[in-house]
Amino acid sequence: MKRILLSILLMATFGFANAQKDAAIDKILKTNEKYQTISCDFTQVKTMAMVDQKIESAGTLYFNRADKLKMDYTNPKGNLLLISGESLLMIQNGRKNDFNTKQNAQMRNLKNTLLLSIAGDIAAVAKENGAEIEFTETADYYTFVLTRTDKHVKSRMSKLELSYSKTDCSLCVMKMEEPNGNNTVYNTPVKTFNPEIPAGTFDKPKK
């Protein structure tokens, strides 16, 4: 009898936890649908596991729900990540790589993961990465840990951690872990919602 009661209790607890997770996912998605554009400052810290080195960067982020994202780095100045349609452009230390994400599965995965995460579509992020979702919450954040289980997915990540503000449901912290142990953490604590983003913001640089 005790085993039966324990099993019932565990099932009830599991069901309640899943209900909380589903409710948070739904709330975040619906709230973010109100944000057509976002602008904010961001910080980035990349940890190189093999050499125990941290590389800090910073800049300004612009997001448009119509598949556009720009991460314009002020430190180091000139670095850039630009997504527009099927194009993903990276400039790092003067080196430019322009990818057609229709033809590059890993870059397509990165593009979709970034856009969907900022848009608050956690279920779609999990599907994109063949990942299982674990959910926790604190006084300030809803946090989702997405662990990749489908090894056939062409992804540069093994795990993704997303923390959304309980106040406005926006993405505040993103941590990407790579199979080699490296990880990158992005922080976007303060945002402007639905700003008018200047024309040309998402155009590729001419030089």
Structure description:
By secondary structure, the protein is α+β, with helices and mostly antiparallel strands. It has 3 helices and 12 strands. The chain has one domain (25-191): outer membrane lipoprotein receptor (LolB), chain A (Clam), CATH 2.50.20. Strands 1, 2, 3, 4, 5, 6, 7, 8, 9, 10, 11 and 12 form a 12-stranded antiparallel beta sheet that branches. Helix 2 (105-118) runs antiparallel to helix 3 (122-129). It is globular and about 70 Å long. The model has no long low-confidence stretch (mean pLDDT 91).
The amount of beta strand, in percent, is: 35-45%
For the record, the count of structural domains works out to 1
**Helix content range:** 25-40%
Largest sheet entry = 12 strands, antiparallel
Overall morphology: globular
* Order of secondary-structure elements: HEEEEEEHHEEEEEE
Given helix and strand content, the structural type is alpha+beta
Averaged pLDDT, please?
Answer: 91
Number of helices, counting only DSSP H or I runs of 4 residues or more: 3
Architecture, CATH level 2?
A: Clam
How large, in whole angstroms, is the Cα Rg? 19 Å
* Poorly predicted runs: none
CATH topology-level name:
outer membrane lipoprotein receptor (LolB), chain A
CATH class: Mainly Beta
For CATH, the homologous superfamily is named as: Lipoprotein localisation LolA/LolB/LppX
What's the N-to-C terminus distance? 74 Å
The strand count comes to 12
